[in-house]
Amino acid sequence: MKSQSVVTDLRKQIFTEVARVAYESTDILSDIEAIPYIITPDEEPRYRENIYRERQIAAERVRLALGLSLRPANKPVHITAGVANSNIADKYYEPPLMQVIPSACDKCPDNVYEVTNMCRNCVAHSCIKSCPKGAISIVNGKSFIDQSKCIKCGRCKASCPYDAISHKIRPCAQACGINCISSDEFGRAHIDNDKCVACGQCMSACPFGAIADKSQIFQLIQAIKQGDKVVAAVAPAIAGQFGPKVNLAKIKTGLKKLGFADVYEVAEGADMGCIAEAHHYVHEVTTGNLPFLFTSCCPAWAVLVKKQFPDLAPEVSQELTPMVATARKVKESDESARVVFIGPCAAKKLEASRKAIRSFVDFVLTFEELNGMFAAKNIDLAACEEDTLDTKASGAGRGYAVSGGVAAAIEKCINEYYPDTEVKIEHAEGLADCRKILMLAKAGKLNGYMIEGMGCPGGCVAGVGTIIDPVKAKVFVDMSVKGSEEKIPPKELEETAERLTKMN
């Protein structure tokens, strides 16, 4: 689920102001310094206890939007420190991508059971009786839990007839499906980067906007300003993101106003992957050469496999992901072009930073970041004219944006081009369910299956970089699929995919 609109609005303000500075400023350092004051112009705070903390948080968000790391809390570091090295068109992310802003974290209780004012001091005292450690007693006529004795088993909560016991879980930790968020020495959220797969669900879940990822807005605009041919590769999940009246043809017009030279549909890359993985499944899995096949288009899912189930890593499809296939197609036509993947996903930023992909994908931008760029240039997409779209994407490729869409597309291709083949499909959405399905695969319970994993519940439409509610987004994606002239990609794309795979 998307975060509260206030948090989303605050992030948009940051992206907008950073983009405006990148496009217009003649005194970049001074104008960057001014952004926290533009974001918080009043003397009275709106959300925190004082205006100084609000500006401190805004300053850290600005640094992340510039692609810079957070400043240390115990050293005097200027907001613009490092900007000179980032004010270039070729800078890649410095790890970690996902960071907790210390001044923004509210130190939420993490896995704590507490008695609320709903307690009626009933005669049964089932909470006391259920506690295996004697951690509960009656204090001032109410049940009281001694936290030093509590083992977090939850029996007291389960036994209370009035639901008077609350289980407080840090929202970011609850959203993380792989338990990589804990508390630091000060009680603030801490991300274990050895475990993190950069899905960004913690960022979406935080009601304080205390978790954010780094952006390449600043560097991208430098590339545009220096005259590079910058090409947008737009993910299928963009359907409906900018309003019900804004289609890809209008978005293309808006992107050209931002300085983009051309627009490609990543669904075309999905079509290539769809055909290639259908071939792979039929010739490798059904023959018994491979036990099963994992899809590879979701980077959070692929990294999860490699980090936590390394023995299963060889079963992740080696076919090009839609992003990479599209980028290679662009580079094949013009190797001087700078490719910007525009999508819903933070994890794509890490995928693009891999050495094998850097030479094809130059920048990664989320829909949320793109929205800030449109705002900076005062572009009203709904009022834009429709540009000509030169795309041949199928409905199958456009369906990659929703959970189950990847496996469904591959299945359609198998049914069409390999009609005598029995297809076994399984899919998981959300990292917790992804881990469960990986455990089943490891145990030999899913042999013969095509297995799709999506790091975000609902699929790409629920990515951290999206703008609208995932349920609404799915409706628009479904409409895009149904409105596609071609329902499945032609089999000839298999040759194109093979050729692009061999590109250096």
Notes on the protein architecture:
This protein has 504 residues and is α/β, with parallel strands linked by helices. The protein folds into three domains: 5-107 and 175-218, 2-Layer Sandwich (Alpha-Beta Plaits); 112-168, Alpha-Beta Plaits; 229-501, no CATH class. Helices cover 40% and strands 12% of the residues. It is built from 21 helices and 15 strands. Strands 10-9-12-13 form a four-stranded parallel β-sheet, sandwiched between helices. A three-stranded parallel β-sheet has the order 11-15-14. A two-stranded antiparallel ribbon has the order 1-8. Helix 11 crosses helix 18, helix 11 packs across helix 21 (493-501) and helix 12 crosses helix 19. The longest helix has 20 residues, at 5-24. The protein starts with a helix and ends with a helix.
**In order across it, which strands form the biggest sheet?**
10-9-12-13
Mean pLDDT: 94
State which percent range the strand residues make up.
5-15%
- Cα separation of the termini: 39 Å
